[in-house]
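Before the break, one more example. Copy the sequence into your notebook; we will annotate it together after we see the structure.
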Amino acid sequence: MAFDRSTLSPEWQRAFDFVEAKVGGRIVAAERQARWRPAWFLDVERDGEVVPVYFRGARGETDHGVYALAHEFRCMEILERHGIPVPHVYGFCDDPEGFLMAKAPGRISLATARDEAERKAVLEHYMQILARIHALPLDDFVAAGFARPASAADLALGDFAHWVRAFRKTKARPEPLIEFAIDWLERNVPQGRERASLLCGDSGQFLFDEGRVTAVIDLELSYIGDPAADLGGLLSRDLSEPMGDIGDAIRAYEAASGERVDRRVVLYHAIRFGMVTPLSTSVQVAAPTPMTDFVQYLAWYLVYSRCPMQLVAHATEVDVPPAALPDEADSECAKAFDVLVDRIGKLPAADEFAAYQREAVARTAEYLRRADRYGAALLEDDLDEARELLGARPRGWRERDEALEVLVGRNEGELDAALVRYFVRRCQRHEFLLAPVMKELAGARMQTLD
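Here is what the structure looks like once it is written out:
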């Protein structure tokens, strides 16, 4: 019997019609992926067999505005033609926007490997595939709309300018840390880089099974740039999906590619790509839409701001003592927040997606509970430290950030060390409010390749 689609919106009715037409069968099972972007796992019955597929929808109101979804679709089509293991793509749907691909076997995250031997085998296999991707001819990608870097600076910065433009277009409040990072990256562009390759962009995303990669996935940020950028991207991926020693991964890449890798350039790109996350999520933190998974975006924004700043400190030999953290305040509202957190956690959820939505609200409530108990003291500590940079104590967070942006705009490098120390500790203070709901990002720190 065909899957009952009667409860679906007209939008998803059209999407499911598209799926059935492309596969040539009838949908018999559907499961919406529990996440911030609309996507579906679907089973399609065709000629007596079940064909598992995946419909990847557009981000909608949380879209970063840099790459269209069709960009990823075109990249996967080309990679498939060149024999790179990616899910087979069936076609692109214009309304609602999305594309259909085969559901590849395997699981994500090397943290789920059976043992250390499997983790090492899969990582080595992935680095071999990455080297193959970097060796592909670029003509097909250029014909599909991928831009070749026009200069040495463009090669080094990659697609960073696109992210900066999107950030400035939607910027909703002062963002001194981000402005400092943009300036630092532009002042410290690696020199002497010439080789351009097709990059995964957000590297380290794949499915695996039985010690082998089954599919490279999530290529929405693919572009043409310096191969070292994909190696730097692994340090970001490692924060949420531990990969093991990235130094081992780079050595496997060197063996597969025959190219020596400059670790300093890899660290530069780890900083550059890490900052893409706060560039793209800052608007969801400053001006969230009603359905935004606020705490998840805030966690990304903070961790992927702090970690690049810590790498800058490492690269420039700046010591950063950790932020001091306050004791809990005796809040009159504490019991109300306790009740709120408890009641949200007990709300029923009809399916996995509803459970995800409940968890998103519960995490926000926990963040607010801790903000009530620790937030005022943390802000006072932060304003005290900002006074050392600004010469006067700001009256609040907005005045602080407006003044810091002016200071960052005047900085030509002489304030780098002091700014990095402050920005790292500032993030640490704010992350403390999120501590119980950080999930996989709790205690995250980028590897330094020492």
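DSSP finds 15 helices and nine strands in the chain. Strands lie at 26-32, 39-46, 49-57, 89-94, 97-102, 197-199, 206-209, 212-216, 223-225. Try to locate both features in your own notes.
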